Amino acid sequence: MAEDLQKLIERAHILLEALPYIRKFFKKTIVIKYGGHAMVDGALKESFAKDVVLMKYIGINPVIVHGGGPQIGSIMEKMGKKPKFIDGLRVTDEETMDIVEMVLGGKVNKEIVALINKHGGMAVGLTGKDGLLIKAKKLYLEKDAPQGQAPEIIDLGHVGKITEVDPNILNILNESMFIPVIAPIGFDEEGIPYNINADWVASEIASALSSERLVFMTDVDGILNEKGDLLSSISIKEAEELLKKGIIEGGMIPKVKAGISALKKGVEKVHIINGTVPHCIILELFTDKGIGTEIIS
After folding, report:
1. Under CATH, to which class is 28-296 assigned?
2. Helix, strand, coil: what percent of the chain each, to 5?
3. N or C: which end of the chain has fewer CB within 10 A?
4. What are the structural domain ranges in the chain?
5. Which pLDDT belongs to residue 1?
């Protein structure tokens, strides 16, 4: 009996540790970039959905931006179309763009919506075209050329970069019990769709909403130093130095750059966390120690 009581007291301490953070984030917006293995593993998907629903019910406004690269590649191969990348960017011709819209805006987006709703939330799926949320234009890739020559300009097709985010539809949803779930697809003034890097979509949406936090879910613990040790907190200046030295590399580069951009536009803190840890969002945002890396101004 005494042992059971002690366990209950420990649970109470956990809730009390979270109280200052619940108070701080009450009625604030937190943008979460949902991606990596957490979108594939069944138990992690359930964990993510429960975290998001919990946040909404305690008065926080979670806004979800999701990726879906592996899912796009899988469908492309089933359709007999081989994915092609240049410098990590998917070459997106018209047929591929149709697949991107079908997979991201349809299959993946609605699966996330359904999962959140299953756990008591009221999620709404969006792309950039809904409410004129994400305006974009074609992104051209510049490759360095030998000295004295003009750089090579590569047309990646329907790959875009954001020109404007109109957060009105998100503000309306946030004022209610709805949870926005956003696929990283933008559109230009002529209605032409563009596939956009989800990290940058999350960054620009967090900036437009003046979010309290921007959280990137990855498959690693966070940002590591030269020795491979996890850095629990770093400044913009320190992050830029790690980028310059090549210590931050691979898929972490766009996340850190997008995070720095959001910080410079008014987001208070950026978190990079390991999405393979169950309930990673709660552990990072509502505990004193956290589990990942926070980038601060």
Report:
1. alpha beta
2. 45, 25, 30
3. N
4. 28-296
5. 60
